[in-house]
Amino acid sequence: MESLSNFTTLRVGGPAQKIVHAHTEDELIEFVKAADKSGEQVLILGGGSNLLISDSGFAGTVIRVESKGNALDYDACSGGMIEVSAGEDWDKFVELTIEKGFADLESLSGIPGTVGGAPIQNIGAYGHEVSETIARVRAFDRKKSEIITFTNEQCKFSYRNSIFKEESDRFVILNVTFQLRKGEQSLPIAYAELAMHLSVNIGDRAAITTVRSAVLELRGRKGMLLDTSDSQIHSAGSFFVNPILSQEIADKLPADAPRWPQTDGRVKTSAAWLMEHSGVSKGEKLAGAQISNKHVLALSNSGNATANDIVELAKMARAKVFEKFGIKLQAEVQMIGVNLE
Ligand SMILES: Cc1cc2nc3c(=O)[nH]c(=O)nc-3n(C[C@H](O)[C@H](O)[C@H](O)COP(=O)(O)OP(=O)(O)OC[C@H]3O[C@@H](n4cnc5c(N)ncnc54)[C@H](O)[C@@H]3O)c2cc1C
Q1: Residues within 6 Å of ligand 1 by CB
Q2: 149 - beta bridge partners?
Q3: What is the pLDDT of residues 1-56, one digit of tens each?
């Protein structure tokens, strides 16, 4: 039985009862249908960059999405509609769009994983989210055994969430269609650190190639790229989401805590800030698990961690934040066979 640690960026996870590799959309649907028919548990696996799988592994069929290909429908007025298979590598796709002169994905450079994984938690970085560019998502509905096309609105995107995450046992993403502008200028820069790095103001635009390089550099400094040269540190990126609080709870935070007002009147704060101000330190270790020495939000495998070590480290960080601020951090990473309670 093959170990799932070979398929996750955290490099933890026990054996899978069965792993199959879906190279085409048809194969993906057939594997899902067959597993559902025989009543097996199913785990859809993309790049494994947002997964924490237990040391006992997965007692069912793991279906790895490896379908490739994209189709560009270019119209000079509306820009490009690009339909991309779920198994394509996300960052290679972003790089390709920039090479071909399409804008809008530059801020999302360097995020690991697959194109099919991107809508699940509505990936975001540097003030932009993938939902800003998605026109349609085609998915296989396991409940109705049919293919459905979701419009952007039907995807119910919100901060690190979507209908696909809410109903994760139901929809298998087959491909995603992006609507991108043709052009050299980026979306308005929406993140202070990036604006400073580019020497522009928030709301300004810059060349898409320059924005991509800047984002890759900033991500590299924080250990937020999949760094194959650093074989000792493996992570799943940010382990916790930024909490969204009621105004009343946000008012109780210290004055210097980050506060990002939301359209619904609530306030988002920074999970990293809460951790750092609760005594969680970069580089801190618990058995083989470690708080990254570059970014406090990245819980890492320093070489020989088990999934349990990562869980214990996450629990420790969560307990410290709860004790200090009364806020329960929620995991961004999808957990299979483990939990933080
Ligand atoms: C170093 C690093 C940096 C990161 N930085 C960011 C960041 O800046 N912003 C951000 O938002 N995320 C970030 N992430 C998290 C991660 O890269 C994204 O969430 C990514 O989109 C996950 O895609 P994946 O293909 O690896 O999905 P996986 O980890 O394989 O799966 C994640 C979830 O999606 C489901 N899934 C995957 N593919 C499909 C499919 N085709 N159909 C249905 N379900 C599917 C899985 O079952 C699972 O529940 C980072 C991760 C790492 C390791």
Answers
A1: 9, 43-51, 65, 86, 111-114, 116-118, 120-121, 123-125, 164, 168, 172-173, 224-226, 235-237, 334
A2: 138
A3: 889 999 999 999 999 999 999 999 999 999 999 999 999 999 999 999 999 999 99
Rounded Cα–Cα distance for residues 63 and 70 (Å): 21
**Rounded to two decimals, what is the model's pTM?**
0.97
Active site residue 205: no
Split at pLDDT 50, 70, 90, the class of 176 is very high
Pocket test for ligand 1, best of 4, 49, 212 (most atoms within 8 A of CB): 49
In angstroms, what is the span from residue 147 Cα to ligand 1's centroid? 22
Give the H/E segment covering residue 3: none
Over residues 108-132, mean pLDDT: 98
Amino acid identity of 96?
A: L
> Could you give the CA distance from residue 152 to residue 41 in angstroms, rounded to a whole number?
29
- One-character DSSP codes across 282-332: TT-EETTEEE-SS-TTEEEE-SS--HHHHHHHHHHHHHHHHHHH-----BS
pLDDT in tens, 69-95: 988 776 656 688 999 999 999 999 999
Planar angle of CA 15, 16, 18, nearest 5 degrees: 140
